[in-house]
Amino acid sequence: MGEHRTLTVQLGERSYPIYIGEGLIDQAGQRFIEHGISSKSPIMIVTDEHVAVQQHLVRLESVLKQAGFTVSSAVVPAGETSKSLAVFEELVTKALQAGLDRKSTIVALGGGVVGDLAGFVAASYMRGIRFVQVPTTILAHDSSVGGKVAVNHPLAKNIIGAFHQPEMVLYDLSTLQTLPQRQVRAGLSEVVKHGLIWDAEFVAWCDENADRLQALDSDALGYALFKGCSVKAAVVSKDERENDLRAILNLGHTIGHALEAVAGYNQLLHGEAISIGMVGAARLAVKLGAPEQVYTVTKHVLSRVGLPVRLPEELDTDLIMDAMKHDKKFQEGSMTFIVPVAIGEVEINHTVSASLVREIVEELKQEA
Amino acid sequence: MGEHRTLTVQLGERSYPIYIGEGLIDQAGQRFIEHGISSKSPIMIVTDEHVAVQQHLVRLESVLKQAGFTVSSAVVPAGETSKSLAVFEELVTKALQAGLDRKSTIVALGGGVVGDLAGFVAASYMRGIRFVQVPTTILAHDSSVGGKVAVNHPLAKNIIGAFHQPEMVLYDLSTLQTLPQRQVRAGLSEVVKHGLIWDAEFVAWCDENADRLQALDSDALGYALFKGCSVKAAVVSKDERENDLRAILNLGHTIGHALEAVAGYNQLLHGEAISIGMVGAARLAVKLGAPEQVYTVTKHVLSRVGLPVRLPEELDTDLIMDAMKHDKKFQEGSMTFIVPVAIGEVEINHTVSASLVREIVEELKQEA
């Protein structure tokens, strides 16, 4: 079935494989059958307008039909605004009209937005039906592991959701070839993050292979996604319901989320904001006693894959601090930060003072 | 803490107790503390307009406040129409405004509608927070066991939902004293059903104690709810995710649901429709070889608790048959029925012919 890597996310009864390789969409029919997905019950593919105009949707539909499945597709607008209860309800309507039953499967073909949205439909339709992810972005490697699915509420992101593990993830590297360069780099941010929290060797590898990654070299990308998913899977397997350990996945996210909120979503892409946030966390680490190298290596490897490491000067420090105070991780004057104590190793620090964070934010604006 | 019965629903890590007795609302604060519900995170009570005007809400709010909890309440319109995504979204808004966090608890004070709705909010808010049920109807004894929570879609009832087990159920019998007589009888329908599928002795007990039950005698009611919950808990514990066994809980529901749909909801209460449906299932059983007594006892005990056993003649047989064909249990000309083979024992029959069912429907209109 062609060359590919397979990773199993270990979650007891709910364990599932992630297949990573070129052309996996063309094997979808066979994979579905191998995984016991019944062709007696209709399948619904959920995707967005950007993906739908490419060949991926047509390929996926036709290969599943050839394998004997009844397939319908629902196309939602591209972008975060589709993660709403209104679009969710439309998808349930379409699922009902297409006759989806308890043994049906919903397939998410797209990036994180489509995965989160379609996953929440799968989690709640008839109290939960099967779900398959076919990610088409690098960033989606992150959301394809962990089972978190959700939609937004006007007052809060991802506030309505569930934990719902997919049956499998089909990561077809050929879908990534059409990504815009800025999206590629932003996606690599979470890949590098997985190295920084867990695997120093992989961080060194990212540095050495940065050019190949940015050029979307299939072999390099396959390896990087495999490693990124592996780290996330290891963390999630130990802590499925997000207690302590899972928090380490938030490296760079406290500052990063605040930057996204202040800059406006889409101004600063998620991966870009997290990159700056990780540099901030590394600066913080050094102030708290970590070796200087934690900061220099973090900054270096992120620059190498083309990510910003400097906080745009025009973003107001007060607004950034305010945004952080709305973060769930902020409590009574002290903040919780994921702090790298070495490359590949982080700690959770619950007592970082707000004034120290303000200092870091100012310094990030001076970053060379 | 006063006299009460306790039943534990055995579901491994998610096991929970059902407390049944007079005045349990007044002990809610203490129970919450015993169950490790944190007073650091706000609690939200969800109830409906009918319950809110009674003293139960005030009692529950004040006892929880006295115990140190931060409490807010959300009141939804009474009736099935509140089980919508729109009301669900309003409740999420209120939860956000009240500052509910991951360690918060949502309390459902009311009947099945409030339990289903508030339960789905608890299941999906921040991907799942704690949930406590305080049922105020007899019928809710049924939905308080099993963890099924849901809202409706315009095209289908209960289609959007989850399995979310409560931390505990506080069944305060004093809340039942204000129920209208018709609601009382309709609620007893599911109580008797639990006897008919599982426990012949309890069916005999219902017959002997029918007058005390209809008079809302606290001791009789407490025992009946305890037995009803016990049967459901036994079935659910063996089959949490609704595979085969759980289907037996649908005794009377194939015909019953069709009657509700044709008569119009609220014309025929759920319990009334199920009562007629159970008589139909018993008639069917006898035709399939069960002893005549299955039919006579079923009909007798349902009549004794004041429930209808005859199908209203004005309901069109064709429409009833059509409604049944939309039922999930209908497949290609043959239907699935839960058939009592003896009092206290049922079987699942997947090959009941539609023509035999039509015969039964006609006969149910002639019922003496």
Automatic annotation (TrEMBL), chains A, B:
Reaction(s) catalysed by this chain's protein: 7-phospho-2-dehydro-3-deoxy-D-arabino-heptonate = 3-dehydroquinate + phosphate
Main subcellular location: cytoplasm
Domain named 3-dehydroquinate synthase N-terminal: residues: 75-185
Binding locations of Zn(2+): 190, 253, 270
GO molecular function: 3-dehydroquinate synthase activity
Domain 3-dehydroquinate synthase C-terminal, first and last residues per copy: 187-329
Annotated Pfam families: DHQ_synthase, DHQS_C
Tagged with keyword Mitochondrion: no
Binding annotation for NAD(+): 112-116, 136-137, 148, 157, 175-178
UniProt keyword terms in alphabetical order: Amino-acid biosynthesis, Aromatic amino acid biosynthesis, Cobalt, Cytoplasm, Lyase, Metal-binding, NAD, Nucleotide-binding, Zinc
Cofactor: Co(2+); Zn(2+); NAD(+)
Domain of life of the native organism: Bacteria
Record-listed E.C. numbers: 4.2.3.4
Role, per record: Catalyzes the conversion of 3-deoxy-D-arabino-heptulosonate 7-phosphate (DAHP) to dehydroquinate (DHQ).
NCBIfam families recorded: aroB
Protein family membership: Belongs to the sugar phosphate cyclases superfamily. Dehydroquinate synthase family.
Name of the protein this chain belongs to: 3-dehydroquinate synthase
Species of origin: Paenibacillus spongiae
Gene encoding the protein: aroB
